[in-house]
């Protein structure tokens, strides 16, 4: 009994010692992690305060520096292979079949899936066909609404994100698609998210300069308010328009496409908008055509 009692005492002491050692180790390393995190936060806060308090920077300037990253809008490395050489010839052959089926009333998604599987296209190539191909009937509807020129003194209505993102993509050296209806489109695929990049201001300035050449009376930019950073884009457009001396209104709405369909002299490449608006003008033809190094893919 005495031996058993001593054994239990020793075992209990050993377990207690191990438990205390573990707790001490956790507390020691935990404090170190806490200290490192606190120092890191203090450092970041100090750097942010420096940006705010330094005479050469304001809070807005700091935000602009962070957001204006050197990003290539719409760039995909695989495009150099998927939209060139033999791949492009295959895509063009597929487009002929797609338009043939669309003209016979087959739905878009089914046609793209069927033809894409037959020609073994990638998802990005299929997305390109969706944006480039249309049945002859739809092309005729869009062209009937197309203006050959902008009248002097008119008011134009611009699809804000559509126009800016397209020009950002072109200025970034990324691929631009020229569709069968003559419109230019991109594959940036923002899907409700947007961020100001280095090419944003040059893109806006190009759009405004092109509009001024037509001597319009006023430009109305329609912007989807739910999209992230839409307020920042509005500020950039307003600043560029004021600097250029262009009368400009910027409308923040829930759905820009719905509003654009109600107007004439629309600037957009959206297939539904140009098919349902009163009239539209292909300003993108001028803008993309003015870029010598623009990467334009046609079928």
Descriptors:
299 residues; alpha/beta; four-stranded parallel sheet; three-stranded mixed sheet; 58% helix; globular
How would you characterize the overall build of this protein?
The chain is α/β, with parallel strands linked by helices. The chain has one domain (about 80-295). Helix content is about 60%, strand content about 10%. The strands form three sheets. Strands 6-5-2-7 form a four-stranded parallel beta sheet. The protein has a three-stranded mixed beta sheet with strand order 4-3-9. A two-stranded parallel sheet has the order 1-8. Strand 5, helix 10 and strand 6 form a beta-alpha-beta unit. The longest helix has about 50 residues, at about 1-55. The radius of gyration is 29 Å and the shape is globular.
Short overview:
The protein is of the alpha/beta class. The protein has one domain (79-297).
Count of helices? Answer: 13
As laid out across the biggest beta sheet, the strand order is: 6-5-2-7
* Helical percentage: 55-70%
Specify the overall morphology. Answer: globular
Rounded to an integer in angstroms, the radius of gyration calculated over CA atoms is 29 Å
- pLDDT < 50 stretches: 28-57
Question: How do the strands and helices of this protein lay out in sequence?
Answer:
Elements: H1 2-53, H2 59-67, H3 79-82, H4 85-102, H5 108-119, H6 123-132, H7 136-144, E1 146-147, E2 155-159, H8 160-171, E3 175-178, E4 184-185, H9 200-213, E5 218-224, H10 230-244, E6 248-253, H11 256-260, E7 266-267, H12 271-276, E8 280-281, H13 283-289, E9 295-297
Helix pairs in contact: 4-5, 5-6, 8-9, 9-10
């Amino acid at each position: 009994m005495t031996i058993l009692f001593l054994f239990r005492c020793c075992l209990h002491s050993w377990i207690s010692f191990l438990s205390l050692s573990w707790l001490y180790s956790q507390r020691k390393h935990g404090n170190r992690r806490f200290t490192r995190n606190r120092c890191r936060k203090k450092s970041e806060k100090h750097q942010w305060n420096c940006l705010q308090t330094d005479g050469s920077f304001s809070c807005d300037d700091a935000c602009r520096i962070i957001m204006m990253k050197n990003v290539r809008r719409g760039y995909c490395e695989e495009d150099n292979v998927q939209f060139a050489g033999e791949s492009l010839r295959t895509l063009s052959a597929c487009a002929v079949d797609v338009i043939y089926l669309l003209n016979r009333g087959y739905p878009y998604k089914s046609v793209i899936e069927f033809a894409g599987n037959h020609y073994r296209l990638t998802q990005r190539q299929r997305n390109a066909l969706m944006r480039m191909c249309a049945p002859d009937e739809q092309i005729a509807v869009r062209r009937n609404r197309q203006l050959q020129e902008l009248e002097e003194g008119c008011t134009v209505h611009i699809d804000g994100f559509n126009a800016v993102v397209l020009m950002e993509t072109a200025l970034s050296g990324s691929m631009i698609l020229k569709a069968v209806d003559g419109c230019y489109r991109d594959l940036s695929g923002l899907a409700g998210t947007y961020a100001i990049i280095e090419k944003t201001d040059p893109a806006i300035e190009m759009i405004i300069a092109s509009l001024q050449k037509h001597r319009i009376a006023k430009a109305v930019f329609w912007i989807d308010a739910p999209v992230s950073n839409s307020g920042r884009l509005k500020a950039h457009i307003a600043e560029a328009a004021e600097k250029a001396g262009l009368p400009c209104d910027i409308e923040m709405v829930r759905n820009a496409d719905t509003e654009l369909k109600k107007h004439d002299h629309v600037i957009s490449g959206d297939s539904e908008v140009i098919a349902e608006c009163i009239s539209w003008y292909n300003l993108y033809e001028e803008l993309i055509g003015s870029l010598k190094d623009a990467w334009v893919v046609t079928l």
